[in-house]
């Protein structure tokens, strides 16, 4: 159970970072 929570947390953080990078990339253009 703890492993699943950590996995979900990591996936969420990864998606948030990817979204921020994509948003910043659009802003630069």
Distinctive features:
0% strand, 29 residues, mainly alpha, rod-shaped
Sheet having the most strands:
none
Q: Tell me the number of strands.
A: 0
- The ordered string of helix (H) and strand (E) elements is H
Shape: rod-shaped
**What Rg is obtained from the alpha carbons, in whole angstroms?**
13 Å
- The proportion of strand residues reads under 5%
Number of domains: 1
Overall mean pLDDT stands at 79
Could you give a short description of this structure?
The protein is built from one helix and no strands. It is mainly alpha-helical and 29 residues long.
Structural write-up:
By secondary structure, the protein is mainly alpha-helical. It has one domain. It contains 1 helix and no strands. The chain has one helix spanning 2-28. The longest helix is centred in the middle third of the chain and has 27 residues, at 2-28. It is rod-shaped, with a radius of gyration of 13 Å. The termini are far apart.
Please render the helix and strand layout as text.
Blueprint: H1 2-28
């Amino acid at each position: 159970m703890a492993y699943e929570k950590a996995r979900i947390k990591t996936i969420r953080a990864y998606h948030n970072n990817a979204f921020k990078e994509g948003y910043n990339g659009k802003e630069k253009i």
